[in-house]
Amino acid sequence: MDTLIKIIYYYNYLVLFYFLVIVTIYLLLNAISFRNISRYSRKIKFVELKEIFRLHNFKPVTVVVPAHNEEKNIVQSVHSLLQLEYPDYQLIVVNDGSTDGTMKMLFDNFQIRQSSFSPYYEIKSKRIKAVYLSPAYPNLVIVDKENGGKADSINAAINISKNPLITVIDADSILERDCLLKIARPFMENENIVAVGGTVRIANGCKVNQGYIEDVGLSKSWLARFQVVEYLRAFLFGRNGFDYFNGILIISGAFSCFRREALVSVGGYLTGSIGEDMEIVVRLHKILRKQNKKTKITFIPDPVCWTEAPETFKTLASQRKRWQKGTIESIRLHKSLFFNFKYGWLGALVFPYYVFFEVLGPFIEISGYAIFLISLFIGIVPLNFAIAFIAASFLYGVVLSTLAVCLEEFTFKKYVRPKELLLLMATALLENFGYRQLTAWWRFEGLYEYFIGKRSWGKMEKKGFQKEEQKEFSAAMR
Amino acid sequence: MTEFLSQTGIVISVIFSLLTIIYLLILFILLIRIFEQYRSAREKIFISNWEKKIFEYLNEDQNPHELIKLFPKSTYKYLLNNLRGYQLMLKGDDKEKIQRLINQTPVYDYLLKKIKSFRSKSLIFGVYYLGLAESENSRFIIRKKLKTRNELVFLTCALSLARMNDIDSINSIFNEAAKFKYLGRDTLQSILLEFDESCCMHLLMRLDNEKSPVFKSVIIAVLKHFKYEQGAPDILSFLFNEESTLVIMEALKFFSEIRYPGALAAIRFYLNNSKPELRAEAIKAALRINDPSLEDRVWSLIYNNDRIVKVTAAETSYYFSDASREKLKLLAYSIPNTIESSIARMIISQKTIHLN
Known about the structure:
The structure holds two protein chains of two kinds.
Chain A: H1 2-45, E1 61-67, H2 74-81, E2 89-96, H3 102-110, E3 113-115, E4 128-133, E5 140-145, H4 150-160, E6 165-169, E7 174-175, H5 179-189, E8 193-202, E9 207-209, E10 212-215, H6 222-244, E11 255-259, H7 260-265, H8 276-291, E12 296-307, H9 313-333, H10 345-359, H11 361-378, H12 383-410, H13 418-430, H14 435-451, H15 467-477
Helix pairs in contact in A: 1-6, 1-11, 1-12, 6-12, 6-13, 8-9, 9-10, 9-14, 11-14, 12-13
Chain B: H1 2-5, H2 8-59, H3 64-69, H4 76-89, H5 92-103, H6 106-115, H7 120-132, H8 139-145, H9 151-163, H10 170-177, H11 185-192, H12 199-209, H13 213-225, H14 232-239, H15 245-258, H16 264-271, H17 276-289, H18 295-300, H19 307-320, H20 322-332, H21 339-352
């Protein structure tokens, strides 16, 4: 019994230590991000993005849209993607063995015709059945292939595309019209950049018109609003902070841009992976930084892409478990980076951070709550201290969330109505009471399921945007 | 443990500090919003007054001093922000008139004060707008500011000097650019493209002694942009001894752009190079120069061992001549089905899909 009490006793210290370390790391990331974003804002203030049209040295981009059973959204998505602002881009829609009417919708709406395609697989992918071109839309390419998943579809598109930059998006991503201008800039500024990620925002509550965000708003659902603050924190602070250390390990699959030659040289996306978005980024670091130490993967803080967030607990839980499993998988596959000082800050700081705080974090957090309660019950921790400590940790979370809202207001100011700003601040306060603990629990479940071998994707149900409007749009286009 | 943990006082003071921080952050957010609303309201009022006046100014021969007098100094930043669009868009007399609004009025002193500031934010602001106004008088100060360790300051100064077409600063721009480890060649190229054609002669002089392959390729790219044919013999003279793929690629693009017949030997040489990317670039150049003597060699590269070279050769053959196109069609439907015939089919299908 004494040994057990001792274990509980020291475990409390461990959790306290864990808490202090994470507080320090977050404060550091916050400070760096504030500096980086204000520098970035100053930098882009005088940049006329459309000037790129005048230049002869812009890089042609291929936008890849993997689509599997997307008959409801595909027409509107393609129409809006064909209106992006960029001097030279190609849009490749990959029909990944859809069993619904995705191909029919594309046939009916874009007058596509089959082109003779000479198969040459620089990267392994499932068989490409046919490639279609459209006389009406010269930059549109439709690839019809056997089902192989998102990663496989991207690999197929890389084989077809010859442009130096590849932008990967989800079929339901809503892009800002000038997103390509923004995402392509870092590649022009620094030849060592092999990948760029952009900030993804939550579209729930926004008014979407013809595939574009017409009016930014907040959802009526608290769950969606919590995710708004969560995304602000993750993108404005987390990724920006890690960018300083050239330690970005995740670029959102909803919107990312890569140098094609870099993707080809590492063998493309890993098919059958749970977290292919993270895995490819970690692999790019691992392989390319060995060849060229200056290789950089960076991030632009501009909100360039909007995505629909789950509004039910079931879907959100499934999403978070999948993310957790994806993180563990990528970390496990590239464990040689752990405390590998040859990779600079990435090996020395960022990768260990992911191991201790992203992979093991949910376990320490959940077990910490349990042990803390037990300690309270058996009298190791006095009640007044327990209450004060919990209050401090919750308030610390509030500080972080409010800081994220503060940075948003300081820079991009997407939520223009005062009512929404107040609502956002209220969300930042409330998010820490229940929602964060819940996500920690789902991540813990993800960790558990991964280790017992339950590694399936799970289903993601999405509500879709303004369905009536979408139907009208499709009819009008036809 | 209990002793340590019972130091609840420490935790409570942490709570109070956190509460204070939260309170201050909320206050800060609200202040930012109020300030922003005030600023945007002021700018709106400014624009509503300004737009009418600027059109009057552009249409009539008004004294710039008279116009600027109407605006208090505190609105200069709105003024400059609004003039920016006009300066980027307008040309000729209208542009000059707008520039006079900056260069011949107290706005100039306002910007000059900014560029003398130690704060990089103010410095960048001043340099940017003086560059946009092509303010001759400030070029010497901006040249001095070029020597900095701050990349953003350097880029803004270089851009402004380029906009002023300050040819004498070209060498300094290159020398200073060399100090920045991560400065991309595209960035440098974009800045140099702001100079006018007269920069080509200076760039060519620099090219003769330039060691850095990156800078060499940038210079050739700028010469290509201005189609500076006089530079062709110089580039040709060092091309055969050049080792950098980057430089050779850019040189081939340059010859291709100006359709330089003197480069035939070089193109023929690189059609046989061991590097596929150089062979592919040489094929593209061969198409632009369109010398019949290259036709057979280009056609034969369809059977090359590299796929990129094969595809480029097939694509080039489609355009090279009617005879080549017919050969490609024959190959496309030949038996047996080979990689070459499959590529030929692909090219023909892609090129004709819009005609069917």
